[in-house]
Amino acid sequence: MNFTRESVFISATRSFCNSFAVVIGVLSPIILILIAMSALSSPIVPPIKNEIVLAPDADGSRTPLPENSPVVLRINIQGVVGQGTLTTENFTNKLLDSQGDVIKGNRVKAICLYVDTPGGTVSDADGIYKQLIQYKEKYKVPVYAFVDGLCASGGMYICSAADQIYASNTSIIGSVGVILGPSFNFADAMDKLGIKSLTIKQGKDKDALNPFRPWVPGEDQSIVNITKALYDNFVEIVSSSRKNLSKDKLVNEYGAQIFIAQTAKDYGYIDVANSSYEQTLKDLTAAAGLSDKDPYQVMQLETPANILSSLINGESAIFSGKIKHSLEINPVLSSELSGKLLYLYTP
Question: What is the mean pLDDT of residues 258-281?
């Protein structure tokens, strides 16, 4: 018998080619489908529809009710405002879906804000606040907030849209103020090390507060003016909505301090201290005109994860090749907030 002997190199080459052909065969249809979808897709991309999640009512029940049952829309204000899904855009989409294709038939009779936030960006806090005010005026629904943990700075700004603010006994309230920075100056250190920098600019004060040169007195004035305007607006929003909160004391005595719930109630920041989510719902449904015998459904609208988008944008570990294991010592201090004016409490 004759056997054909084959070199190790030829055998390895054949195995590689076979494996490569299999990979190409699997990936080719996927690539073609993605190309076709991209070519045929409309330039108008509809927003992602939120999904309904049933939340507990005042009795702790999440039993599905008939589709014509009245709804209390629960919206979580949790985490840093302006990060993740807690943005004006996502918040607006939830409100639109509550009176559109997701929750149909004008079923929403009240809104319950579930709050645990240190605040965040000025623009998103203001945007969410304005969306709530517009919704209240358009649909004539009461809005109550329940604080379970922290309602500071931008959280207080958003809650100023609520008719009533309740809080648990351990909740912390306050921090009415604006912050930008801190900013650092390295000019003296650079001189000692013999390091020089060059900034090419056009326009007066274009490099205001450049950290690599000595600062000129008054070059921060425009930023100070902006910060003061935003602070004055914040104070006006809070004091006009919190009738028992003295504007004079807010500015000259309380400042940007934080307070335990009972003290916050005594000062006028909130309406009810040492309360609960269940009690908030009971009082909210009464304000909405629902009797104890009227069954109602508490619904949340959650934004579904867009896996395809994260894959296309290279955000997935599959494409980036990175798997992160991290411990966030202070998750509030994020690079996303750097250089932004903030209604934010940072302990």
Answer: 97
